[in-house]
Amino acid sequence: MTPHSQEDPVRTLPSKSDHKRAAASIRELGVALGALSPTQRAQLPLNDSIRSALDELDRIKNGNARQRQLGFIGRLLRAQEEHIDAIRQCMDLIQPGSPGWQRHRQQTEVWQQRLLQEGKEGQEAFNTFCQNFAHTDPQTLRQLVRNRLREQSDAKKAARSKKLLRYIHEVRLAQQTAQFVSTAHSLAAPTGEQTNDV
Fold first, then answer.
1. Intra-chain end-to-end CA distance of the chain, in Å
2. What is the CATH number of the domain that holds 66?
3. What is the C-alpha separation between 103 and 16, in angstroms, rounded?
4. How many helices (H) and strands (E) would you count in the chain?
5. In CATH, what number is assigned to the domain containing residue 103?
6. Which domain holds residue 172?
7. Are residues 44 and 103 in the same domain?
8. pLDDT tens per residue, range 94-118
9. Do the Cβ atoms of 180 and 89 come closer than 8 Å?
10. Is 81 within 8 Å of 29 (Cβ atoms)?
11. Taking 50 as the threshold, does the pLDDT of residue 195 lie above it?
């Protein structure tokens, strides 16, 4: 090994500034999570400890106590560091107006239109959706589609459409969350580590 190659690992070590930026970024993430509603947080890949800490933050009104709780949440997030990117990506999907949310919304509306097609086209869209999104309950999806197609009242059509759109959104979000977390686990796994597929 040459002297140059011996120094390379040292050069890649994070600096104090890097650590400070990472800590500040995680703290900002904790603040952003605290600003979400419990319903929104339920859609994120958070462990029970972080969820409980965020619920406790909702109950704290004192400024200093909130800052201490945010510091605690930051420490919990650092312990789940391999999921940080997945949490950020999922947050982008559930925050109205964000680029991720807009893309997700548009794609969800396209799926709704495809599922509401009459005849063979609608059935093909139904089969494709169920195959592509493992979190789908086919019976629930079929019933929501039927209810919307059978409805005659314009007002009730809008309500049925909203329910169907919400279900499609939830299924697609669950699938993408699982993919984000799976990717995070893969990136965090040591090089050469093998998984048991048996």
1. 40
2. 1.10.60.30
3. 37
4. 10, 0
5. 1.10.60
6. 99-188
7. no
8. 888 888 889 999 999 999 999 999 8
9. yes
10. no
11. no
